[in-house]
Amino acid sequence: MSVSDPDLSLDALMIAAQAGDEAAYRALLKALATALRGFFSRRLGSNGAIEDLVQETLIALHERRGTYDPQRPFAAWFFAIARYKLIDHVRAARRTAAVSADALDTLADADEEMATTARLDLERLLETLPPRTRDLVRTVKIEGHSVAQASLTSGLSPTAIRVLLHRAVKAMSARVGSSGS
């Protein structure tokens, strides 16, 4: 698969970049710069600081690239960095001038957008599991019920539930790592 392949995901580019593939790293930075311009312009309008924020975020990515865990979705990790750069920018602007309520609303929108994206990613992963396993993951891992409670309602032993949950989490982690979704 070549770096110019349109199906090559950001996750795959980052993993290749971590392995020393310079072409993948250049392609990743180029794709991220474009995404960041949209990300920041949606939140700040035509603010002249957008290019500075893009560069600061890419530098932060470069400095922290060794901390990225390939078992986790890259976009969530990366856009968390971008969000922190945006927050730092708004705080700095607040020190020099009054920040409008609209700017604060955009930060709340950013949190909501990231949470929605994470929920959609999780739902896609859950759909890959068998129905009974999917229900157990939702009950125990998402809703926070105990294994004992899940055992009572499912009719499975607590040990069987733990094994199913372990296998489900492992399978979902493998899908995230292999598909780059």
Keywords:
mainly alpha; disordered N terminus; 181 residues; Arc Repressor Mutant, subunit A; Rna Polymerase Sigma Factor, Chain: A; 2 domains
Description:
This protein is an all-alpha fold. It folds into 2 domains: 1-127, RNA polymerase sigma factor, region 2, helix turn helix motif (Rna Polymerase Sigma Factor, Chain: A), CATH 1.10.1740.10; 130-181, Arc Repressor Mutant, subunit A. It contains 8 helices and no strands. Helix 1 packs across helix 2, helix 3 (50-64) packs across helix 4 (74-96) and helix 4 runs antiparallel to helix 5 (101-127). The radius of gyration is 20 Å and the shape is elongated. The two termini are 17 Å apart. The model is unreliable at 1-7 (pLDDT under 50).
Question: CATH H level of the largest domain: which superfamily?
Answer: RNA polymerase sigma factor, region 2, helix turn helix motif
Overall geometric form: elongated
The radius of gyration over CA amounts to 20 Å
Q: What number is the mean pLDDT? A: 82
Distance, first to last CA:
17 Å
Q: Helix-strand pattern, N to C?
A: HHHHHHHH
Regions with little confidence, pLDDT below 50 for 5+ residues = 1-7
What percent of the residues sit in helical stretches (DSSP H or I)? over 70%
Please provide the count of β strands.
0
Supply the number of structural domains.
2
Q: What's the CATH architecture name of the largest domain?
A: Orthogonal Bundle
Number of helices: 8
Strand residue content? under 5%
* Largest sheet report: none
Structural class: mainly alpha
Which fold name fills CATH's third level, the topology of the largest domain? Rna Polymerase Sigma Factor, Chain: A
